[in-house]
Amino acid sequence: MTVHIDHSGDPVITLTIDRERKLNALDYPTIDALLAHLDRIESDDSVRAVVLTGAGHRAFSAGADIPSLAQSIAGGTERALREVVRRGHALTRRIEEFPKPVIVALNGLAYGGGCEITEAAPLAIAAEHATFAKPEISLGFPPPFGGSQRLPRHVGRKRGLEMILTGDPVSAAEAARIGLVNTVVPAGELIDAARDLAERITRHAPTAVTACLRAVTRGVNLPIDEALAMEAACFAAAVPTDGVRNGLRRFLDRTSASDVPFTQAR
Question: d(Cα 156, Cα 177) in Å, to the nearest integer?
Fold first, then answer.
């Protein structure tokens, strides 16, 4: 088993990539295991959020497993596209579009595919010693798990290209400054910080959380008119839900009890 799952009964589940001796590199069985776990988590209503981390303290993930990748490339272009690119895209798209929040807890270096998972995840918290890099150029190819597209969208074209074209690592503090991660915490507080963020999200209705994730993820790269239409569609899908009914009732009961006008209560 290269992916461990920790579900102690609360609504936040932890997935741990466990190839510590290989710096949690993403070989094909590990990618497939992550996808399978996400499929099961999506259908489990008791799970409201996912914390994704790596085993040990050195690495979240060093990226694609290079021996596996080399074998795929040796088999020719079609095999490389099938085994490397399509599988990598499937993982990062699944994380990006997951209907429950995925919070990456970066416990060390996040290189290559590890950085691409960070880019795809809606939220990320880094330990102070974490570093980020796009070293694919040193192997002769561009990032194959979606990183050539997501990174510039997150941090800007010039910053993204500097990382992609040089392969040079950046610190956790720099990653936070440019918007690649949400925040940086001491290593010993990493998982607690990720779980705290998850719990601040899961106090809200699951239908509302899913609607917000979908509106942002699907709309962020659209022209504004199309993005606003996406926002409207996500709002419309939420209107008939218990989350809206219960949320409005709680608010109106509270404001009625305190005799505070709606405009002031907001």
Answer: 12
